[in-house]
Design brief:
The complex is a heterodimer. By secondary structure, chain A is of the alpha/beta class. The longest helix of chain A has 32 residues. Chain A is globular and about 60 Å long. In chain B, the strands form 4 sheets. Chain B has a 7-stranded mixed beta sheet. In chain B, helix 2 crosses helix 13, helix 5 packs across helix 12 and helix 14 crosses helix 17. Classes of the chains: A alpha/beta, B alpha/beta. Chains A and B meet through helix 4, helix 5, helix 7, helix 9 and helix 12 of A and helix 2, helix 5, helix 6, helix 7 and helix 8 of B. Chain A: It is an enzyme of class 2 (transferase). Chain A: Its cofactor is pyridoxal 5'-phosphate. Chain A: GO terms for molecular function: L-aspartate:2-oxoglutarate aminotransferase activity; pyridoxal phosphate binding. Chain A: InterPro entries: Aminotransferase_I/II_large, Asp_trans, PyrdxlP-dep_Trfase, PyrdxlP-dep_Trfase_major, PyrdxlP-dep_Trfase_small.
């Protein structure tokens, strides 16, 4: 049989050698013993005999290393390997079936791909034919099949145990919306700006900037690790104000990041490295991805109270209490403006008090600014909270994103800024941020950075951008007003809907609970997230009345 | 209504005097990234004949960066396209992954036809490797990664930052200036079964030394016996020999042998898309269902690092690879780049031999790809920079892409000068 194997088995050139023969012999000689003893859950295989002979000094010349499958299937008993290759149950199933099948010797062709696809039943005896002398044995006839089939126990993917990642809740909303055929349907799950016609909007200034860039024919060389210098300068000035002391004193370490997410992640790694054990306090609720970012960066977090369902407003006392109660030196994650998902922002006076408490407790403020200019329409107004803290001389982290205010969602352009006590410190912090970015992606993508730099750097384009932001923010304010008007005129219960007007930005917490939100979807074909959040970006004036009807119905008639 | 008294407290002024906590005093300055340090030193050097051989970026005969024809045409094609609609980005991503997978594994292999791969666009090679490293840490928390010695320096950083322990295996034989195959095989054998190995499929960075086809077959064989996981970092497909299929032959050997491999692909150098950060990470799976699950996990991990990958590069790359005409143009252009590099290798070797140097310069034309690894000492590297204004990475790796017919003679003389007293 071995001689047959040797001649018929067509491996790549000159593969056969004594080790191959002896190991095959060993393997086959073990089989009857194993089959007899074998029970489903454990295979007592003595690794010694097979391995030591198998791994006897192999010559350094180019000879075949023998029977690929042997060592591993026999070593399947070793726990380390078991964990690495595939879960024990599968491992043992595979190995035991191979072995028992070998004993039963039923000749039939069984390519390994069938096995992996589950077409071949384990233990059915099909697999066993691979190891039995038989002219019909596919192992003998085909080159690649042979190599694979011999290693069947080896080559089952080690990803067997990997489960599906939890679905993105917001994506789920969009998909359900797409599948709905009702013409009245409304997608209020979308976190991206839509026009009155409910279409995605590419800002005019972006088109102009891109044309400029194309005409200039700029090369596509690597950016430095910290990103485009012109962008970094522009973004810090936009945020803090060009005449801010933090800028003139060079106390800000700014590096370009991949939108808000990427910038937050850089900061998270810095925190984990230089503030080991420090916690990040995040609002309850907050943007879903915040938790993922800190979890993956191994930064512990806890929540501070934020949303008060009774008032559909800010639980300010709870917020202050929780920030006070946190261990000194915690990071407090704050939304600079247009809180996501509630749309509820502190008032200027409340911001002062928050800053007081943070200073008292020696916490570090960490702003996530994703909507500067998009919330109120004014870049300066939307940066007021950050500037308030900077004016107090505090050391601050600020992550920025240009996804919404410049509509550059998929270009992934943002920045992480760290305000430090001195320019020297800022230089050091910047160097460490670069050190974090290099093994993450080496250097950031160029396109979005160039767009921002071009728009901000050209006075005409900059002016046009401000106008477009005002337009976008204006449209959102417009639909808020219309929605509020529709609600107050249609709802006779006297409920106060003014929170719609007090909230700001793309999102609004309606105060509807999960069941009520489901009713919105099931009865009214209004798609939103289960926490009661609606995206005003997905609403237009024409649909406000319909939405008002849906909200009133869900609020009053469903509980 | 909140009515707060706005009391002016002393520590509200913006001076950074006492009372303001200074958090970052313990943050030391990071060591400069060696490559960036080289570039900076080069940029500040006023010497007119200076040569920058540090960065592995292609330069044309005039020493200028090249925007490829296929890229320019693709830019024109997508000009004015609305990349924001919900359809284009996902479609472009799917096209990109499919085309990348076909390019590296071959279009007719079963695993491609049956879609038994989990593939996502990645932030170039670095991003793809990092994504895999994070995936490895998440799902194989006890595992380590074996890197060749030497390798691209950032490989070490990537896996270390992902908190995956790093080990090395022998690769470069300093005396032979070739592959230390025996030691490599030994290390592969001695590694615990089921270890994760990073392999350069062609144009090894920094040595330019690749295993022969027979040697690859043997490595593949041994990997099967040891059940090791082969992870390929493909950064130079097309730039090594000029032929994209030939450059992928090592991967195809592993595929034929039935390995379920992982592959990081970068197009920064082969397509000149440096600033766009486009690449792909693919993992071969047992079946389609598994591929869907694994992909979902890769996307989840990426979601917490940067959300989604930048669309411009994705659309560019998918446009080029997805369009037969553009792709053919690319094949020609990458072949031309490879040829120029090969001719520079030949010229450099010729020039060095003409200097009357007693040393053997054969390895210049034997090494493959963008880099020349002459095995210089740190002192020699330093002299080349300080005395001759020739810049390279501290390990003595020189990018042949920076060599032109106008500077090759100067370079040869400089190298001869620092090596002749050996």
């Amino acid at each position: 049989w071995l001689a047959q194997q040797a001649t018929h088995h067509r491996l790549r050139t000159n593969r056969l050698s004594p080790p191959f023969h002896s190991s095959l012999l060993l393997y086959s000689s073990h089989l009857p013993i194993q089959a007899a003893e074998n029970s489903s859950s454990s295979i007592a295989i003595s690794p010694n005999t097979v391995e030591s002979r198998h791994f006897s000094p192999l010559s350094r010349s180019h000879q075949a290393k023998g029977f690929p499958g042997t060592s591993c299937s026999h070593r399947a008993a070793s726990p380390a390997l078991r964990n690495l290759i595939f879960p024990s149950s599968l491992c043992f199933q595979m190995a035991s079936s191979v072995i028992s099948a070998a004993a039963s010797a039923s000749p039939s062709a069984c390519p390994v791909t069938d096995l992996l696809k589950g077409k071949a039943k384990l233990g059915s005896g099909n697999v066993g034919s691979l190891f039995i002398k038989d002219k019909g044995n596919p192992f003998l006839n085909s080159k690649s099949c042979g190599r694979i089939t011999m290693a069947v126990a080896v080559n089952v993917s080690r990803f067997e145990a990997i489960t599906m990642a939890p679905p993105d809740p917001i994506l789920g909303v969009s998909e359900a919306f797409k599948a709905d055929n009702d013409e009245k349907k409304l997608n209020l799950g979308v976190g991206a700006y839509r026009t009155e016609e409910l279409q995605p909007y590419v800002l005019d200034v972006v088109k102009k900037a891109e044309n400029l860039m194309l005409e200039r024919g700029e090369n596509k060389e690597y950016l430095p690790i910290e990103g485009l210098a012109a962008f970094n300068k522009a973004t810090a000035e936009l945020l803090f104000g060009a005449d801010s002391p933090v800028i003139s004193e060079q106390r800000v370490a700014t590096i370009q990041g991949l939108s808000g997410t990427g910038s937050l992640r850089l900061a998270a790694v810095l925190i984990e490295r230089y503030f080991p054990g420090a916690k990040v306090l995040i609002s309850s609720p907050t943007w879903g991805n915040h938790k993922n970012i800190f979890n993956d960066a191994r930064v512990p977090w806890s929540e501070y109270r934020y949303y008060d369902p009774k008032t559909v407003g800010l639980d300010f006392e709870g917020m202050i209490e929780d920030i006070k109660a946190a261990p000194e030196g915690s990071f407090v994650l704050l939304h600079g403006c247009a809180h996501n998902p509630t749309g509820i922002d502190p008032t200027p006076e409340q911001w002062e008090k928050i800053a007081d408490v943070i200073q008292e407790k020696n916490h570090i403020p960490f702003f996530d600014v994703a909507y500067q200019g998009f919330a109120s329409g004014s870049l300066d107004q939307d940066a007021a909270s950050v500037r308030l803290f900077a004016a107090r001389g505090m050391e601050i982290f600020v992550a920025q994103s240009y996804s919404k205010n410049l509509g550059l969602y998929s270009e992934r352009i943002g920045a992480i800024n760290v305000v430090c006590s001195s320019s020297d410190t800022a230089a050091r912090v910047k160097s460490q941020l670069k050190r974090i970015a290099r093994p993450m992606y080496s250097n950031p993508p160029i396109h979005g950075a160039r767009i921002v730099a071009n728009v901000v750097g050209d006075p005409a384009l900059f002016g046009e951008w401000k106008a477009e932001m005002e337009m976008m923010a204006g449209r959102i304010k417009g639909v808020r007003q219309k929605l509020y008007d529709s609600l107050t005129s249609k709802d006779k219960s006297g409920k106060d809907w003014s929170f719609i007007l007090k909230q700001i930005g793309m999102f609004s917490f309606t105060g509807l609970n999960k069941i009520q939100s489901d009713n919105m979807t099931n009865k009214w074909h209004v798609y939103m997230t289960k926490d009661g959040r609606i995206s005003l970006a997905g609403l237009n004036l024409a649909k406000c009345e319909y939405l008002a009807d849906a909200i009133i119905d869900s609020y009053h008639n469903v509980s | 209504m909140w009515r707060l008294q706005l009391i002016r407290k002393p520590w509200r002024c913006f001076s950074t005097s006492a009372g303001v906590r200074r958090w970052f005093d313990s943050v030391g300055p990071a060591a400069k990234d060696p490559l960036q340090a080289v570039t900076e030193a080069f940029n500040s050097d006023p010497f007119p004949q200076k040569i920058n051989l540090g960065l592995g970026a292609y330069r044309d005969e005039q020493g200028k960066p090249l925007v490829l024809q296929c890229v320019q045409q693709a830019e024109e094609k997508i000009r004015g396209c609305n990349l924001l609609d919900s359809v284009s980005a996902p479609v472009a991503s799917a096209t990109l992954v499919e085309e990348c997978v076909k390019l590296v594994y071959g279009r007719s292999v079963n695993v491609v036809k049956e879609k038994r791969f989990a593939g996502v666009p990645a932030l170039s090679g670095t991003g793809a490797c990092r994504l895999f490293a994070e995936f490895q840490r998440n799902f194989f928390p006890e595992s380590a990664i074996y890197l060749p010695d030497p390798t691209w320096t950032n490989h070490h950083n990537i896996w270390a930052n992902a908190h995956v322990p790093v080990r090395t295996f022998h690769y470069y034989h300093p005396h032979l200036r070739g592959l230390d195959f025996a030691a490599l095989i030994d290390d592969v054998k001695n590694a615990p079964d089921g270890s994760f190995f990073l392999l350069h499929p062609c144009a090894h960075n920094p040595t330019g030394i690749d295993p022969t086809e027979d040697q690859w077959s043997e490595i593949s064989n041994l990997f099967k016996m040891k059940n090791h996981f082969p992870f390929f970092d493909m950064a130079y497909q097309g730039l090594a020999t000029g032929d994209v299929d030939k450059d992928a032959s090592s991967i195809r050997i592993f595929l034929e042998d039935g390995h379920l491999i992982g592959c990081a692909q970068s197009f920064t150098k082969t397509m000149g898309l440096f600033g766009h950060r486009t690449g792909c990470l693919s993992l071969l799976c047992a079946d389609r269902d598994q591929a869907v699950r694994v992909k979902s996990q890769l996307q989840r991990i990426a979601g917490a690092i940067y959300g989604s990958p930048p669309v411009h590069g994705i659309v560019l790359l998918s446009t080029i690879l997805g369009d037969q005409a553009l792709k053919s143009i690319w094949f020609k252009e990458v072949k031309a780049m490879a040829s120029r590099i090969q001719s520079m290798r030949a010229k450099l070797r010729e020039r060095l031999e003409l200097t009357g140097s007693s040393l053997n310069w054969e390895h210049i034309t034997k090494q493959v790809g963008m880099f020349w690894f002459p095995g210089l000492t740190p002192e020699q590297v330093d002299r080349l920079a300080k005395e001759f204004h020739v810049y390279m990475t501290p390990d003595g790796r020189m990018s042949m892409a920076g060599v032109t017919t106008s500077n090759v003679r100067y370079l040869a003389n400089a190298v001869h000068e620092v090596t002749k007293c050996r």
